[in-house]
Amino acid sequence: MPVLVLAPSVHVIAEEGRLRADDKFLSGLQRHAEVWEGPIRILLRTDTAPLPFSRLVTKSDFPGEVHLLRADEPIRASHLAGADVVLASGDRHDQMELAPLCALTGARLVYAIEYTLPTRLRTAALDPQRSALQRMKSAAWVLNEERRRRRAFRAAAGLQFNGYPAYEAYGPLDPQGCFYFDGRMSRDVMATEDEMRNRAERFMAGGPIRLMTSGRLEPIKGAQDLMPAARAMLSAGVDFTLDIYGAGTLAPRIAAEIATGALQDRVRLHDPVDFQSRLVPHMRRHADVFLSCHRQGDPSCSYLEAMGCGLAVVGTANEMWLPMAANTNAGWVVPMGQPEAVAKCIMQLAAQRDRVTAAAKRSLCFARAHDFEGEFARRMEHLADISRQ
């Protein structure tokens, strides 16, 4: 049976004999194991960087053989021994030299990629911890790493592209590559027809337009734009509520702005909650529109997950949401970093509510066509095809 080695980009944190692991990673890993017809080996790096959406597990909870590597420890040929296929992270700079190791061990190398050069440069430019000179050096390093990345991709047996930006940027390097959306919405947790009907009836009857957003509260995610947008909506007389779920460096600032402004009755900041048991039910039953202020063009599973909950989306004009909005007609695009534009868009939608309910139906339809199980099955079949080459 073919052996699959996974070298993901996400790390784990060692805590008192157990491992803290990202929730999304764990669910994806389980799906890998359910679909792949053979043994799985997982190469996991230990680090101390926070994992806000995570839980404690043991090695035995992982569906395969686990190898723990230090944060700076290179992957060696011994880690890949006996592998038929290696699915590596095209986003990690320390995995760009795997082709010679795979050639040595006879494994077929596939890279999964989601971040693009513009996103990496924007991330470096938005880092508040670095001086202007340091940001310039970071940009130069990013450009050099991009050359290494493209060389590595050309040497690989195949590529998998998570989201529109990655496909547009790297698709020409592998016309037979696998284009997918990395969400976690199974069909059985998506919005039901009854919920869609109840939401539409409540929304069309009037009342506030219920906005919600979730994710890491960091500059690269545009979290600094949430409160200016809320203030602009308040000034424009929009009847709205906004629920923010997440954690990050900007959370204290957002909490302070809510407490000191006139927004206490409109905006609520929530700690991260369990995705399936808490966040999904809220989106399905207590929200009308998902608001995304993302400044980076990462594929962000938040779009597809919100769509699976039957929500129309208002998002900023980044490299992911622009084509997704055009292809799905499930929401609206607003200029990046312009809170007045967000307020104007929401005001128009509150006045033309049938547009929101129609977009919500299209949103759910698209999510159903790209459910969690189907997307992972296509990815695993792509790996299986490469293992047989």
Automatic annotation (TrEMBL):
Gene3D superfamilies: Glycogen Phosphorylase B (3.40.50.2000). One of its GO terms (molecular function) is glycosyltransferase activity. Keywords: Glycosyltransferase, Transferase. Its EC number is 2.4.-.-. It is an enzyme of class 2 (transferase). This is Glycosyltransferase. It comes from Paracoccus benzoatiresistens. The lineage of its organism: Bacteria, Pseudomonadati, Pseudomonadota, Alphaproteobacteria, Rhodobacterales.
